[in-house]
Amino acid sequence: MKVKSKHIGFFMQIVFILLTFHFCLKFNFPSSLKPMQVVNISFDILGMIVCVCLYLSGCLEPKRKREDVLFGISVFFEAETLFCDASSWLFFGRAEYYVLEVMAYSLFYLSSVLMPIVCWFYQMEVLQVRDKSKKVLGTFFIGIFALYVISLVFNAFFKFYFVVDDATGIYSRGKYYFLSIIPVFVLFVTILVHVNLRKANRNIKYAFLMLNIAPYIGSMIQIAIPGLSVTYIALLLAVVVVHVCVQVNLRRKLDVLQNQVLVAQIQPHFLFNTLATIQALCKRNPELAAKTINNFSTYLRGNIQLQHEDLMPFSEELKHINVYTEIEKLRFPNISVEFDIQNSDIHIPFLSVEPLVENSIRHGIRGKEDGFVKITTYSERKFHIIEVQDNGCGFDTETMIPEINKENSSHIGLKNVKNRIESLCNGKMKIESEIGVGTKITIRIPKK
């Protein structure tokens, strides 16, 4: 059985955590460790568990984009850094594990440079940067990493970054330790400036700025509390914040795209009916046809102006309803539309009440001699209320409502309005109906 490459990092992180617990038990954890070692190792283990959860959530996605892959790689290197940090604290002062301690510190230094580079590529993918700066800076960062790897190899002989005493197992910084910080500092400063110059969603931008500032905050805490190691825990928290912001922003983009599709599905019902009405009027009443065309053109102009807005004033929706009902009254003079507007200080999704009125006329009252639709708005303590009520034929709610809520429902109008009310203004739509009596639809929108 072939193992998918995307699962390798996840399995390695699981192994890391198990090995850490193994060494903890082997060293009679925590009795054989100093309090600060216990604190640092606990932070690292907690961080690795968070990394596993983040990586696993990405692996469960059926289709992963390039930015998801880069995020998974950055999480993996973050987990590797935490594991190396935990290992170095476990091996500290234990000469019998001298080789493992040197390896742990070497990998720690390596990951400290590799992590921001991967984060930078992730940022560029999220921000959709496609200009020359991405290639130039990418080459620059990879060059820094290559030089850093070479310097770590030389450190094994010249001990200018760090040294581990083979007799005592005690780690200490080398004479030129500051050189190991310079590449990390250059990387984060370059990324910080580059991201700040980019045009992006404000929340995304702030999240990435936090990602680049977090290591410095963690370093200052470490300076204030000697022995405490929280730099990469601070970086992990920033990674989590970035992940949440990116997912929220992606969800908003999907909502906008979905709403545009929903509006496109709603509009044809009214467009086709209106054109058919105008065609009929042209033969028997040219003056009324001209008036209807004028009203219809006003309606279309309103669509063009408002279709890119998430929410619109209820007064604008009323204009659409009036245009629609005037045209429908030409086709069905037996119907009437009543308005009881007690509260107009409401913002709603574009074309969210008009389709309900249209639905009442088309499927409820246009076959009745005294059919009517009543639109009512009023205010409660925490909600704006909009009601659309008719005296039409009604329907069985026990069978109809589950049908409306289906993924591939044929009742496009009601389902689309319901979805848009919920996604754009956190509202709720309730349907009540009785066969032979009529239907009442209530929209409840929370007050801001």
Question: How does this structure look, described?
Answer:
With 448 residues, the protein is of the alpha+beta class. It contains 13 helices and nine strands. The chain has helices at residues 8-26, 35-59, 66-91, 98-126, 132-158, 178-196, 202-224, 231-284, 286-306, 314-331, 354-365, 397-404, 412-425, and strands spanning 162-164, 171-173, 311-313, 336-341, 347-349, 372-379, 383-390, 428-434, 438-446. It has a five-stranded mixed sheet, with helices on one face. The chain has a two-stranded antiparallel sheet with strand order 1-2.
Question: Could you report the average pLDDT, rounded to the nearest whole number?
Answer: 78
Apparent shape: elongated
Count of DSSP H/I helices:
13
The helix-and-strand class reads alpha+beta
Beta percentage is 5-15%
User: What order do the SSEs take from the amino end to the carboxyl end, as H and E?
Assistant: HHHHHEEHHHHEHEEHEEHHEE
Q: Work out the helicity level.
A: 55-70%
Distance between the termini: 55 Å
Radius of gyration: 32 Å
Give unreliable regions as ranges: 1-6
Strand tally is 9
User: What order do the strands of the largest sheet run in, or round the barrel if closed?
Assistant: 4-6-7-9-8
Largest sheet: 5 strands, mixed
